[in-house]
Amino acid sequence: MQDQTYDRVRAVVRGGTAPFSGELISPGDKSISHRALIFASLCNGTSKITGLSSGRDVKATYKLLSALGVDVVRDSVDSTSVTVNAKGLRGYKEPSRILDVDNSGTLLRLMTGVLSGVDGHFVLTGDSSIVKRPMMRVVAPLRELGATIDGREYGALAPIAIRGTALKGKELDTQVPSAQVKSALILAGLFAEGTTLVRERIRTRSHTEEFLAYLGIDHKIEPKDEGREITVQQMSSAPKGFKLSIPSDPSQAAFFIGGVLITPGSEVTFKQLYLGEGRDAYISVLRRMGARIDECRSDMDVFSKGDLMVKYSKLRGTEIRANEVPGLIDEVPLLATVACFASGTTVFHGIEELRTKESDRISTTVEMLERFGARVRSDGSSLRVDGDSEFSPKTCSVQSYGDHRIAMCAAIMATRAKGDTVIEDFGCVETSYDNFMEDMATLWSGETFTA
Ligand code: S3P
């Protein structure tokens, strides 16, 4: 619940012509890491999870679960491995303190869903960005299940106060295509008497559903046009603890994939990435722009994954349709960064949801790219980038506005500027990628400093 003092780190990237090369295993996937910990906390017995995201968001998840009385033990040598000893569906204890989600919208939304159906009183809040994130999209449908939830502006904003109570299953529509909303409702449905059906009109990442299947939890998924319906029953017994290795995060690899594509002479292999539905749409868009990305898929285990071999490419602009956006929601700033180097125009349609992220990501993306001299425009729900295959970014000073994805896009753009770019409030990259600068140093031969 502290403000983001950790952001006050300034990064300097000394750009030029240095290429990206080598091999990278990106950190564990953030979305899957949150869910692995939350599902483990509802199991009966011990779960061992390896390769967790080491970012602050996922640390907030295991701290929050510990505050609910779940025994979460981090490996003393490998901090990305944890053991969770849980006591089943009714294993949480009522906390005596406010629960801190830090900067994590996923944690706030998913745990609002879980705690709605668990006996006790719970208050959830986080940092200065979390208290601006819209909650009514989760709170309103949960109230339809009978949840007792309040918050600022009658439950629209955190702090969110939950009086866990008996829920009753129902058919629910998600108001916006959002995996966080869908997941909150599915998780609440597992505690609701009878059957809960969650309908999404456009498909979003399906990690919660992957866990239902993996843990053998009774559910049904029916595709409906561009969306799907997920039906769950009240769980009568807790799943057994599990052993799971988390695949690498494609949304974190995306920054360096962007760096490779825009820098002549670059070639990098990204290993063991999650490549399932809802996360790989940005790769299709990049291929449409002419990106040379080969893939080698591994045999499917719990998750669909594989390696990507990426080479510098001559890119051309493209149009991104509104119905593609939920599948690449986190990669819009990076795609816009890459589009600056493509010949012709790239237009993103229907991206208004970006205004509800860690920052107003339409404004912060436009401001960041303009600082580098790019030609970008937004009319509120769309974004237009007039690219240039000879684009040479200006050195500049740029603000991250405490948004990890804006900070990392700026760092990638800065590698192509001839001289020093200063990125203010760079410490926010820790939210999802605490080793970002180390991984950059592994792949990129240019210089970076932090102060
Ligand atoms: C996430 C879903 C996305 C994404 C976020 C993680 C998840 O949010 O932006 O970084 O883990 O479910 P929305 O589904 O709300 O768009």
Mean of all residue-level pLDDT scores: 96
For CATH, the homologous superfamily of the largest domain is named as Enolpyruvate transferase domain
Main sheet characteristics: 4 strands, mixed
Main-sheet strand order equals 24-25-1-26
CATH architecture of the largest domain: Alpha-beta prism
Compounds present?
shikimate-3-phosphate
Overall domain count:
2
**Percent in helix:** 25-40%
CATH class of the largest domain: Alpha Beta
Question: Could you say what the CATH topology of the largest domain is called?
Answer: UDP-n-acetylglucosamine1-carboxyvinyl-transferase, Chain
User: What Rg do the Cα atoms give?
Assistant: 21 Å
Would you identify the regions where 5 or more consecutive residues have pLDDT less than 50? none
Could you tell me the strand content as a percent range?
25-35%
Beta strands, count: 26
Distance between the termini: 24 Å
Q: Which structural class matches the secondary elements?
A: alpha/beta
Tell me the overall shape.
Answer: globular
Helix tally? 13
What does the model show?
The protein is built from 13 helices and 26 strands. The protein has 451 residues and is an alpha/beta fold. The protein folds into 2 domains: 4-26 and 247-450, UDP-n-acetylglucosamine1-carboxyvinyl-transferase, Chain (Alpha-beta prism), CATH 3.65.10; 30-245, UDP-n-acetylglucosamine1-carboxyvinyl-transferase, Chain (Alpha-beta prism), CATH 3.65.10. The protein is globular, with a radius of gyration of 21 Å. Strands 24-25-1-26 form a 4-stranded mixed β-sheet. A 4-stranded mixed β-sheet has the order 2-17-19-18.
